[in-house]
Design goal:
The chain is of the alpha/beta class. It has helices at 5-8, 37-54, 70-80, 114-120, 138-151, 168-176, 192-197, 235-252, 271-282, 345-357; strands at 9-13, 22-26, 60-64, 83-86, 97-101, 109-113, 126-134, 156-164, 180-186, 204-206, 219-223, 233-234, 260-265, 286-291, 309-314, 322-326, 333-338, 363-368. The strands form 5 sheets. A 6-stranded mixed β-sheet has the order 9-8-7-3-4-12. Strands 11-18-17-13-14 form a 5-stranded parallel β-sheet, sandwiched between helices. It has a 3-stranded mixed β-sheet with strand order 10-15-16, with helices on one face.
Length: 370
């Protein structure tokens, strides 16, 4: 399928970010905007086909960028059966990290688990960085530099992204370093700052719900067999684990054909929710999927603006951090999938209260644990 910039790209205004005032939102990606899961995965699969054809027979490591590209990288690795690891801003345990920065983001620090990379880098022919959208390319170059400082220059690098907004100078720098580019759509950012700046920001903003959790009705479930994409995994194994998670989740909740179902992931934890949503859709349900996010984005009532309503939440992963979810609606059932550990209770209550505010009366939360 051929995708176009007009079809995929929506421009939103970042809140209080002087480094870059706009955010490129891909309407089919399943992060900020609720999406039909099959349409989202079909887009990911097209990018995966380009990478698989280009590097058939090579020993690959796919690196998905947090937050927004974690599902893309995980899907590609699951289909290709290669090694996968995502960048993270969370604590992945008692490990050593490689650090690099994402300068235009509100949360600049990114890291990879070096402890895991040490196990496989000797046998990796090529690292493919997977992104939703590349603009300057500086973040990936910073990651390449961090890897080469530790492991030398024997590994080749490529980038696979849904969107590519790099200008000629950025692409020239990549060419000089031998970094190959794969993407679905070329974008032109020249008018994006102006489009974001005129946003009225007059949408609906919900601040933190009240502390008292009384009256919040949701059912909590625990699923086993967790694999963590923040740690090095075999893509095929990760895909199978996500399939088992989907079946466990569906066993907890009595879904019926024709029901309207919402599936929500949490922050970096996107692909397991998206995959579960796709399985539910094959059972005849009307399903939409998206996830919570760290990104504070202005919402607006303007025609054509992508986000209309914002809910502020405590993070499932750090109660001291704000997260957000956008454009909730009423469904027959709402299913929240998360890998958050202890301490997530306030965030869970915030999200469930927000869902209840939209008229959702049957809410299930599934925590994926080892």
């Amino acid at each position: 399928m051929t995708y176009t910039e007009k079809e995929l790209v929506r421009i939103a205004k970042r809140e209080n970010n002087a480094k870059r005032n706009y955010l490129v939102i891909n309407r089919l990606q399943g992060k900020h905007i609720p999406v039909e899961p099959q349409a989202c995965l079909a887009m990911f699969d097209e990018l995966e086909a380009a990478v698989a054809n280009a590097y058939e027979g090579e020993a690959l490591l796919l690196v998905g960028f947090a937050e927004t590209a974690t599902a893309i990288g995980a899907r590609m690795a699951a289909d290709m059966g290669c090694y996968y690891i995502q960048t993270t801003r969370e604590d992945a345990g008692d490990v050593e990290y490689l650090y690099f920065t994402e300068a235009h983001s509100h949360a600049t620090q990114q890291k990879l688990v070096k402890t895991d990379l040490d196990r496989v880098m000797g046998g990796i022919r090529r690292i493919v960085f997977v992104e939703d959208e590349v603009t300057t390319g500086n973040t990936i170059l910073d990651a390449v530099d961090a890897i080469q400082r530790v492991y030398g220059r024997q590994t080749a690098f490529s980038v696979a992204s849904l969107l590519n907004g790099m200008d000629a100078e950025a692409e020239r720098r990549y060419g000089e370093r031998g970094i190959r580019l794969h993407y679905l759509v070329k974008t032109d950012h020249s008018g994006y700052p102006e489009r974001a700046e005129v946003c009225r920001g007059d949408g609906v903003y919900h601040t933190y719900p009240e502390e008292n959790p009384e009256g919040i009705l949701y059912q909590m479930h625990t699923a086993g067999g967790r694999l963590d994409g923040r740690r090095l995994v075999n893509g095929a194994d990760y895909g199978e684990a996500c399939h088992r998670l989907a079946k466990q989740a569906m066993g907890y909740v009595p879904f019926r054909e024709g029901e309207r179902i919402l599936v929500l992931g949490t922050e970096e934890f996107m692909y397991p929710a998206l995959y579960t949503a796709s399985v539910l859709a094959t059972e005849g349900c009307f399903v939409r999927c998206h996830s919570t996010t760290r990104s504070p984005i202005a919402v607006s009532t303007e025609a054509g603006y992508p986000l209309k309503e914002r809910y502020e939440l405590h993070s499932f992963y750090d109660r001291g951090r704000r997260t957000f979810v956008y454009d909730l609606e009423r469904y027959d059932k709402a299913l929240v999938l998360t890998d958050a550990g202890d301490g997530a209770e306030r965030g869970i209550c915030d999200l469930c209260r927000s869902l209840a505010r939209c008229g959702n009366t049957e809410i299930h939360v599934v925590r994926w644990q080892g």
